[in-house]
Amino acid sequence: MIRKNIAFVTGGYGGESVISYKSAITIESNIDTEKFNVYKIDITPGGWFYESNTGEKSKVDRNDFSIVLPEGKINFDAVLIGIHGTPGEDGKLQGYFDMLGIPYTSCDAATSALTFNKRYTVAVSSFGGIKVAKSMHLFKHSPVSPEDITSKLQLPVFVKPNNGGSSIGMSKVSEAGELEAALQKAFKEDDQVLVEEFIKGREFTIGVFKYKGDITTLPITEVISKKDFFDYEAKYVAGMSEEITPAIVDEAIAEGIRAAAKKVYQLLNCRGIVRIDFIYDEAKQQPFMLEVNTVPGQSEASIVPQQVRAMGWTLKDFYSALIEECFNY
Question: Which residue of 27, 161, 215, 287 has the fewest C-beta atoms within 10 A of its own C-beta?
Fold first, then answer.
């Protein structure tokens, strides 16, 4: 059997590139090299490069996304996308690969661009019948006063950059006097900001992917943060949060979360592995969707690898399934 050439792309142009490189360690060590020829491509503001095991760098020809090595020119049959943030999670790379006709493992360009914008994601999801928190979408060029916000939303609220992930620039605001500083913090990261009402409840997150054409859910994780909320420190500093996989939860609640996750995946026309975050409002007995992560973290301690193992799969099996499925789109 002829092994397919797979480009595994990592890096990125923004602050989340640090997370991309953490994920890259896990992904690279778990791709089945007996099935695929794997070439890691580092995409940075300074250029796109393939680096060999001996440290030699080869520049990527962006005209056809190829590299030239001593053994000859390498064209890629598919791309495994492992970039958090821009340009791998916001649709830019996906559009580029679409133009070249190269399959890839993530959501398509339109879905990636939509889900990268938190406000548009919850708006479309709400239109499709998914429960979401009440929110406001703010723009740097059209300032809104804290008084305008508190007249429309009930405190406490979350203030976060509208685009991007990893909870960078995010704040929880309980007092009106804290709003201005939280807005400034978020606007340092993005020209758009989402202000969202706090929903009290248990936080759950669930991986969803397509396997042999069927939408498949991974075991649910409950996230219990030792901080006031699941911020960057709680996500990436050891001991700052507890992640229980599989979640200890009544089956009726679990089934409601799984059903909502599958509906979101289908509604937004997702591909590959996505992780969807929910708050379960026990008073209303309903899951409220928070956001959709189309390139979820894959470091050894990340949630999706935990869920894959809890399902009884190896990461090698999982990445093989993602790569093989992308040829069906």
Answer: 215
